[in-house]
Amino acid sequence: DSPILQKDGSARLGLVEFQILWNKIRSWLNIFRQFDLDKSGTMSSYEMRLALEAAGFKLDNKLHQVVVDRYADDSLGVDFDNFVSCLVKLETMFSNQPKPSTTLSWVSLVTYYSEEICY
C-alpha cells in the first residue's frame, strides 16, 4: 500500500487519508516553488534533483536521469503535476523497500518498478 493513498482497500480516500494527501501536496507545492529557481513554472533537471532531495529522496545519477526522462516535457522541464506524480511514485517505491533506505538506486528501480516508472 502507498503511504499516501487509501489504506483499507476500498479504492476511496477517507477524511484522514485525504488530509494526509492534501498536506503532502501543499508541502510539495512549497518545495516546487522553492526550487523552481527561475520561476518558470517548470524545473530543470538540476532544480528537480534539489527538489527531490528536499522532499526526502536522494536518487543516484542513473535513477535521477530515468526520472527526468519519464516526467520531463520535450524541453526537459518538469511541471508541478509531473513533480507530484513523480513523488507519489517515489513514495510508493520507498514504502515497498524491504528495509528503510535513504537512497534509491538504479538497482532499486529495476528490482521494484522498472516497468511502472518508465511507462
Automatic annotation (TrEMBL):
Pfam families: EF-hand_6 (PF13405). Residues 23-58 form the EF-hand domain. One of its GO terms (cellular component) is endomembrane system. This is EF-hand domain-containing protein. Gene3D superfamilies: EF-hand. GO terms for molecular function: calcium ion binding. Keywords: Calcium, Cytoplasm, Membrane, Metal-binding, Repeat. It comes from the Eukaryota. It is found in: Cytoplasm; Endomembrane system. It comes from Anolis carolinensis (Green anole). Transmembrane segments: none annotated. PROSITE patterns: EF_HAND_1, EF_HAND_2.
